[in-house]
Structure formats: structure tokens, C-alpha cells
């Protein structure tokens, strides 16, 4: 008589449990076998089977999604402003920066997703369990929360500017509308689960892609001009500043925090709570242990029902698709500006770029650009708020009401709009604050994913760790140059 799996399924394995055997008959998410399938499984259950190295396309496709949501961070209004300015001022010169940033982003986002899948915990949760000092956790949370505020500042301002361009809505009201929509999306995520949230964000991602790429087909760039732009070089100190801004707007701390949480929420067997705030099953005795330091860590690879190797394979596809979309759109923004705005006065602001596009390519293309900017602001502010919630819970074990949590990061952005500060300048300064947060997210991520005690057999290969260290050193150095150039006025 076959044993019932109920006893084994009621809780995940911890480090004190025996090592699990290699099995591929673990049921996938929400999978209910048909009678014929159940019969066939009963006949073959006694025979060991090797897991398929080539899962079907529909099965892999259903596992795709978290990277596409996290990838919205690479298409936020800060990216739009940086790429438009770079293309307008230097033409094709900084094409290589966009390509390099995209390659590094692939590695960083994959490591973040892998941490969430294998451990069943987000990066803030892992750090919260390893930083023993209460004041250390609070200090780490404070810098991460400031980064979340700076992120929200860029997203809300971008959405407000887009609403102003499209409908003439005053900036302060546009900021309120953008913030309200982000709250609605977070409520949707908390009540309907991560998959519905993913579909909504992916819908906005499609709008972003259309809004920012159509202009390139109307006025295509010269291939002869693009190829020299792939050679790494700078023209002057200002081009270094723009390169650092592009990379700073691409590799964002909140995307690193968010991707690990998105992967956990999506694939963990029975998470106690999601970042959105809804309780998913019993907190005690079931699912992932995410509470005090006294609670045991899960054995690496036991947090999910789907085999870990399959999830990591699907995640590589997920990240590849997300980075291909983000890289293509960012490159199109730079090329659009290089072809149509090069040498045009007044294109150093989003409003100026919108007006110049209307003159060069017509009002339809300018309107699509503004629609893409609006979708960018709405999608990215929702993901940023999600990351902020996870940062607070993972590091402080504090879960505050949704509205209050949203106001913590929204109020500074609304205050800047109400006081009448220049929106584009505020976007640029927000990227400076983000630069301070990159080492605190990137260095622990690379270090933790290289440890066998954290990821077990899924720890990084030495070459992956070396690539992660190289990317970290490069990004931290370049962001240091960015800060030096800004504070010295160079």
C-alpha cells in the first residue's frame, strides 16, 4: 500500500532533517493528475526515473514571470531621462554602456532569483537573519529605506510628468494619481496573489515597449553609426557622468531586493506571508519559516515543490527574456534621441524631449512616448513599493498596514512636486542617492550566493562568483566617479 505524502508535505525540510533523495515525481504547482496519469504513475513509481533535462515549453513558460516584473526597474523614468540625454548630447557614443549594463544586470538578477528559489527567503530576510545586532539591522534598513524613497521619487515624478504632458494634470495631482494606482496594484497583489500582479505588470511592460520603440522604426538609426558606439570610450567628463547615470539607473538596489522576494512568493511551497501583506496559510508549522533568528533555516533546495534545477533553468529563460526586452527598449530610447534630438536645444528635460519629438516625428510619436513614460512610472512605482515592503519586513520583521507603508515612500516625492522643484533635476539627484545603496545590495548578494552554507549544491561556480565580483567592483567604482563628479561640480 503506497504511503500517503501528507505527513511529508505539511512542512518543509530544515537543516536538521535527512537529505532528500533525487526524485522527479514531486507534484508541480496546482497540478491535479488525471485518472490515466495517476494510474501510469502508480505503475512506474517503483522504477527510478531520471528528471527530464528538456522540460516542455508550456511547463517552462508557466514558470516565467518574476524577472519580467523585476525587469520593470530597468525601464523606469530614470532610465528614460538618462538614455534620452545621452543620445541627444553624444549620439551613438554611449551605446556600449547600455549593452554592458544589460549584461551585468542579467547576472545580478539571476543571482537574486536563485537566492529566493533555493533558500525560500528574500535577500532582506537572509540578511535580517544573519545580522545579529539589532542596531545593525536598523542601520541597514535605514539605508535601504532611503534608497526605496529615492526610487519612488523617480517613479512618481515620471508618472506625474507623463500625466501633465498627456492631459495637462498639475504635477502634484499627477503624483497623487500615480501613487494611488500603485496602491491599487499592491492591493491586487496581496489579494489575488503574485501571478495576477505579474500579468498586470507585464501588460504595462508591453505598453512601455511600444511607446518607446515605435519612433525608432519611423526614423531608423544608421547601422554605420551604431557599430562605433559599441567600442568603450568617453568624450569628456560629462560623458562619464552620463555613463554612470545610465548604469546607476539600470542596476538598482530595489530590483535586487524585489527579485528575490518575487521568486520566493511565486515558487515557495507555502509562504507564511507575501511581501504584499496577505497571509498565505498557517504561519506556524507550515511552509517557510520567516520569523525570528531562532527559527531554523530551510535546507537549500527544499523550499519549492517544483524541482530546483527545473526552476533555475526556467529562471535563466525568464531573466534572459526580461533583459532582452529591457535592453532593447533602453537602446531604442538612446537611438531615438541620437537620431532626432542630437544638437536640439532644450532636450535636457522630459518635457523638452517630448516637445522636440513632436516637432521631429509628429504628435503621434510624442504621444506614444508620453504613454510609455506613464506606464513606466505606474509599473515601476508598484515594484518599488513592493520592494520597500519586503525590505521592512525582512530586516525588521515589521509588517505595517498597506496605506501607511505606501505613504512612507510616497510623501517625499509629493513634497518635492508640491514645492515646485524641477522634475528632471529631481530625477537626476534621486539616481545619486541610489548610487549609495548599490554596494549594500550587490556585495551581500554575490557573497551569499557563493556560500555552500546558504545555497548548498546550487552555490555559484567560481567563474560566476568572479564575474559577480568584477561587476560589483566596476559598478561601485563608476558610481564613486559619478558622486565625485557631481559633488566637485566637474
Automatic annotation (TrEMBL):
Q: Pfam families recorded for this chain?
A: Nramp
Some GO term, biological process aspect, for this entry: which one? iron ion transmembrane transport
Instruction: Enumerate composition-biased segments (Basic and acidic residues).
Output: 22-34
- Compartments, record wording: Membrane
Alphabetized UniProt keyword annotations: Membrane, Transmembrane, Transmembrane helix, Transport
What is the protein's major site of localization?
membrane
Membrane topology per record? Multi-pass membrane protein
Residues in a coiled coil are none
The protein's matches in InterPro entries, at most eight in alphabetical order, are given as:
NRAMP_fam
GO cellular component term, pick one: plasma membrane
- Indicate whether Transmembrane appears among the record's keywords: yes
**Gene Ontology terms for molecular function:** cadmium ion transmembrane transporter activity; manganese ion transmembrane transporter activity
State what protein this is by name.
Manganese transport protein
Amino acid at each position: 500500500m503506497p504511503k500517503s505524502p501528507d505527513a511529508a508535505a505539511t512542512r518543509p525540510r530544515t537543516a536538521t532533517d535527512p537529505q532528500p533523495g533525487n526524485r522527479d515525481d514531486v507534484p508541480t504547482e496546482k497540478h491535479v493528475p488525471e485518472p490515466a496519469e495517476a494510474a501510469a504513475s502508480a505503475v512506474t513509481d517503483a522504477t527510478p526515473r531520471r528528471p527530464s533535462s528538456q522540460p516542455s515549453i508550456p511547463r517552462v513558460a508557466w514558470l516565467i514571470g518574476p524577472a519580467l516584473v523585476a525587469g520593470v526597474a530597468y525601464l523606469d523614468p530614470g532610465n528614460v531621462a538618462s538614455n534620452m540625454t545621452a543620445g541627444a548630447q553624444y549620439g551613438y557614443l554611449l551605446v556600449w554602456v547600455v549593452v554592458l549594463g544589460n549584461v551585468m544586470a542579467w547576472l545580478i538578477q539571476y543571482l537574486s532569483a536563485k537566492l529566493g528559489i533555493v533558500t525560500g527567503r528574500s535577500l532582506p530576510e537572509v540578511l535580517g537573519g544573519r545580522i545579529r545586532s539589532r542596531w545593525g539591522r536598523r542601520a541597514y534598513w535605514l539605508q535601504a529605506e532611503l534608497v526605496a524613497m529615492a526610487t519612488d521619487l523617480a517613479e512618481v515624478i515620471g508618472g506625474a510628468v507623463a500625466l501633465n504632458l498627456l492631459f495637462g494634470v498639475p504635477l502634484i495631482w499627477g503624483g497623487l494619481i500615480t501613487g494611488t494606482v500603485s496602491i491599487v496594484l499592491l492591493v491586487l497583489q496581496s489579494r489575488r496573489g503574485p501571478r495576477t500582479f505579474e500579468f498586470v505588470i507585464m501588460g504595462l511592460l508591453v505598453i512601455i515597449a511600444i511607446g518607446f520603440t515605435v519612433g525608432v522604426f519611423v526614423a531608423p538609426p544608421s547601422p554605420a553609426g551604431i557599430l562605433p558606439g559599441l567600442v568603450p570610450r568617453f568624450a569628456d567628463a560629462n560623458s562619464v557622468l552620463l555613463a554612470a547615470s545610465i548604469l546607476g539607473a539600470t542596476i538598482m538596489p530595489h530590483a535586487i531586493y524585489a527579485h528575490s522576494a518575487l521568486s520566493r512568493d511565486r515558487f515557495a511551497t507555502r509562504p507564511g506571508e507575501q511581501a504584499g501583506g496577505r497571509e498565505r496559510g498557517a504561519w506556524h508549522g507550515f511552509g517557510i519559516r520567516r520569523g525570528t533568528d531562532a527559527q531554523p533555516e530551510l535546507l537549500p533546495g527544499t523550499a519549492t515543490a517544483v524541482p530546483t534545477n527545473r526552476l533555475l533553468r526556467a529562471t535563466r529563460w525568464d531573466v534572459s527574456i526580461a533583459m532582452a526586452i529591457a535592453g532593447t527598449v533602453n537602446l531604442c530610447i538612446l537611438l531615438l534621441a541620437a537620431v532626432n534630438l542630437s544638437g536640439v536645444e532644450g532636450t535636457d528635460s522630459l518635457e523638452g524631449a517630448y516637445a522636440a519629438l513632436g516637432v521631429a516625428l509628429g504628435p503621434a510619436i510624442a504621444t506614444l512616448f508620453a504613454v510609455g513614460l506613464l506606464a513606466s512610472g505606474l509599473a515601476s512605482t508598484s515594484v518599488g513599493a513592493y520592494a520597500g515592503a519586503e525590505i521592512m519586513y525582512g530586516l525588521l520583521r515589521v509588517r505595517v498596514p498597506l496605506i501607511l507603508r505606501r505613504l512612507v515612500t510616497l510623501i517625499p516625492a509629493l513634497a518635492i512636486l508640491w514645492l515646485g522643484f524641477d522634475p528632471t533635476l529631481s530625477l537626476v539627484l534621486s539616481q545619486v542617492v541610489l548610487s549609495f545603496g548599490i554596494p549594500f545590495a550587490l556585495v551581500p548578494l554575490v557573497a551569499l550566493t557563493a556560500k555552500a552554507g546558504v545555497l548548498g549544491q546550487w552555490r555559484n561556480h567560481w567563474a560566476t562568483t568572479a564575474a559577480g565580483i568584477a561587476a560589483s567592483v566596476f559598478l561601485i567604482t563608476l558610481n564613486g566617479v559619478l558622486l565625485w563628479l557631481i559633488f566637485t561640480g566637474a
